[in-house]
Amino acid sequence: MADNVVILAGGQGKRMKTTKPKALLEVLGDAMLEWVISACEEADLSRICIVKGYEAQQIDDYLGGRYTTVMQSERLGTGHAVMQAKQFLSENIDGYTLILNGDAPFIDCGTIKGALELHKSSKASVTVVTSVLEDATGYGRIIRGENGVSAIVEHKDCTEEQRKIREINSGCYWFDTKELLSVLDEIKPDNAQGEYYLTDCLSLLLAKGRTAQAYISENPYVSLGANDRAQLLELNTLARNNIIKKHLENGVEFSCTDGVIIGRNVKIGSGTHIKSGTQLFGNTTIGSGCVIGCNTVLKNVTVGDCVTLNNVQAADSQVEDYSTVGPWVQLRPGTHIKKHVKIGDFVEIKNSVIGDRASMAHLSYVGDSDVGENVNMGGGCITCNFDGENKYRTVIGDNAFIGCNTNLVAPVKVGEGAYTAAGSTITKDVPDGALAIERSQTAVKEGYADKKLAKRNEKFAKMAQEQQGESGKKES
Question: Across the strands, what pairs with 364?
Answer without folding.
Answer: 347
